[in-house]
Design goal:
The protein is of the alpha/beta class. It has three domains: about 5-80, no CATH class; about 85-95 and about 360-465, Aspartate Aminotransferase, domain 1 (Alpha-Beta Complex); about 105-350, Type I PLP-dependent aspartate aminotransferase-like (Major domain) (Aspartate Aminotransferase, domain 2, 3-Layer(aba) Sandwich), CATH 3.40.640. It has 20 helices and 17 strands. It has helices spanning about 5-10, 15-20, 20-30, 35-55, 65-80, 105-115, 135-145, 155-165, 190-195, 210-215, 245-255, 280-285, 310-320, 325, 330-345, 345-355, 355-360, 365-380, 425-435, 460-465; strands at about 85-90, 125, 130, 150-155, 170-175, 180-185, 185-190, 200-205, 220-230, 260-265, 290-295, 305-310, 385-400, 400-415, 440, 440-445, 445-450. The strands form five sheets. Strands 4-12-11-10-9-5-8 form a seven-stranded mixed beta sheet, with helices on both faces. A four-stranded antiparallel beta sheet has the order 13-14-17-16. α3 (about 20-30) runs parallel beside α5 (about 65-80). The two termini are about 40 Å apart.
Length: about 475
């Protein structure tokens, strides 16, 4: 044992000396000299602090082997990807915080192809000249929606912004007061309009808007009539709304474009798959819409994107807007989006090939059977620390889609039992989040709930339960 902190500090090896060691050389080969040097310096600083806190007479000699192991652990933590896979057992299929729609393998393959090779992103292979990047998906979007042309930007808020900035700069846009939606993150439709440089003109009231309200609001300053699908809430009771066909007729009588913002957006009739109806771009176009905006990463099941489809002349104007370049998508997004759109051309196989639709249509009996298979492994992993049981759940679609509709599901509830109270459910949730592939569920009525609707990699989930470690530390009340 060393007798003083000063002596122990003097005995510490230099950074340069440690960098010359064989064990550190292995770390350098794996992580690079810069990161290893930083880790060594940080660990030496920590070690000096530990020496200062050590009781007199209890200062051990420097253990280089243990020090290098500590550096290796530190480097492993620091170089782990921040963006990592998780098990989404929240009961929300399109969970915004968990990346929304999981994409099909064909989309992932298209992204890898675009990332690892030069591609004809803006090159016309036929003519040998500069091309238009949106052309890679435009043909699919027009085929699937009935539109004449299409533009792609980075999300639907950008699609709305670009549309309004192009068609209504310094003018007014008529919107029903009951359609002034707020998107996630407190992003509101009136704010988008203001940033787009146009003025919102409200028509009607929150719960009832009539055609005469729009007619009375039209003036020389009106640039467009817009209908916003209230995809993330529903107004029920004493309500009235003007059908799209009537709004389109009114707009065209006054020489105005009629814009429909669907928010989420879907390319097939969900009722064909036993799900609630969701408006489609094709329906809006058939009702007379000149432009339709919608998302790519919600119900459609693709990458984050904002899609604008409609009349060729209007799309051409939008494409010329200087802000289009600021809002455009990259080659990876276009590759993934093209692969997803291609799946919609084969409706018979769509439900199996598209993860979003497959999860939404998953039969309740399959989920219940899975819960029965998973429960024994869950109970074994928990031991006597907690109780697990199968419960009925109600899944939701999420991401502002079909907000009042739910899907019957099944899950596993983990609770503390009668002997524990307080924050034990929080500790259970933390333990599942600490697994190699974090498990994200929800807490309700003192239990940690895992809805199994979205559990597709069952074997991987069960195998990692052996790593489950629940913090047994009592809460502040001593329970």
């Amino acid at each position: 044992m060393l007798t003083s902190v000063a002596a122990a500090r003097r005995a510490l090896p230099s950074v340069d000396r440690l960098l010359q060691s064989e064990a550190v050389g292995i770390l350098i080969a794996r992580y690079g000299r810069a990161l290893v040097t930083e880790a060594i310096r940080d660990r030496l600083d920590s070690h000096r602090g530990e020496l200062s806190d050590a009781p007199p007479g209890a200062i051990a000699p420097f253990d280089e082997h243990a020090f290098v192991d500590a550096c290796a652990c530190l480097l492993q933590v620091r170089t782990q990807p921040s963006l990592k896979p998780v098990f989404n057992l929240t009961g929300t299929v399109l969970h915004t915080n968990l990346g929304r729609a999981p994409m099909p393998k064909s989309a992932a393959e298209a992204v890898v192809q675009a990332m690892t090779h030069p591609v004809n992103l803006e090159f016309d292979l036929g003519g040998g000249a500069r091309g238009e990047r949106d052309s890679h998906v435009e043909r699919w979007l027009t085929k699937l929606t009935g539109a004449e042309a299409a533009v792609v930007v980075n999300n639907n808020a950008a699609a709305v912004y670009l549309t309004l900035n192009t068609l209504a700069l310094k003018k007014e846009v008529l919107v029903s007061r009951g359609e002034l939606i707020e998107i996630g993150g407190a992003f509101r439709m009136p704010d988008i309009m203001a940033r787009a440089g146009c003025k919102l003109h409200e028509a009607g009231t929150t719960n009832r808007t009539h055609l005469k309200d729009y007619t009375a609001a039209i003036s020389a300053r009106t640039a467009a009539i817009m209908k916003v699908h209230t995809s993330n809430y529903a107004i029920q009771g004493f309500t009235a709304a003007v059908p799209e066909r009537e709004l389109a007729t009114l707009a065209h009588e006054h020489g105005l474009p009629f814009i429909v913002d669907l928010g989420s957006g879907m390319l097939v009739n969900l009722e064909d798959y036993g799900l609630p109806h969701e408006p489609t771009p094709r329906e809006a176009m058939a009702h007379g819409a000149d432009l339709v905006t919608f998302s790519g990463d919600k119900l459609l099941g693709g990458p984050q994107a904002g899609l604008i489809v409609g009349k060729k002349e209007l799309i051409a104007r939008i494409r010329k807007n200087p802000m289009k370049r600021a809002l455009r998508v990259d080659k990876m997004t276009l590759g993934a989006l093209e692969a997803v759109l291609r799946l919609y051309a084969d409706p018979e196989r769509l439900v199996q090939e598209l993860p979003t639709l497959r999860l939404l249509t998953r039969p309740l009996a399959d989920i219940e059977a899975q819960a029965q298979r998973v429960l024994p492994a869950m109970s074994a992993a928990l031991g006597t620390r907690a109780e697990a049981g199968i419960i009925a759940c109600s899944s939701q679609i999420g991401s502002g889609s079909l907000p009042v509709d739910s899907l019957p599901s099944a899950g596993i509830a983990v609770s503390a039992g009668a002997k524990r109270r307080g924050s034990f459910a929080d500790r259970i949730a933390a333990a599942f989040r600490a697994l190699p592939v974090p498990v994200i569920g929800r807490i309700k009525d003192g239990a940690f709930i895992m809805d199994l609707r979205c559990l597709e990699h069952e074997d991987e989930f069960v195998a990692q339960l052996a790593h489950l470690k629940i913090d047994e530390k009592p809460n502040h009340k001593g329970h």
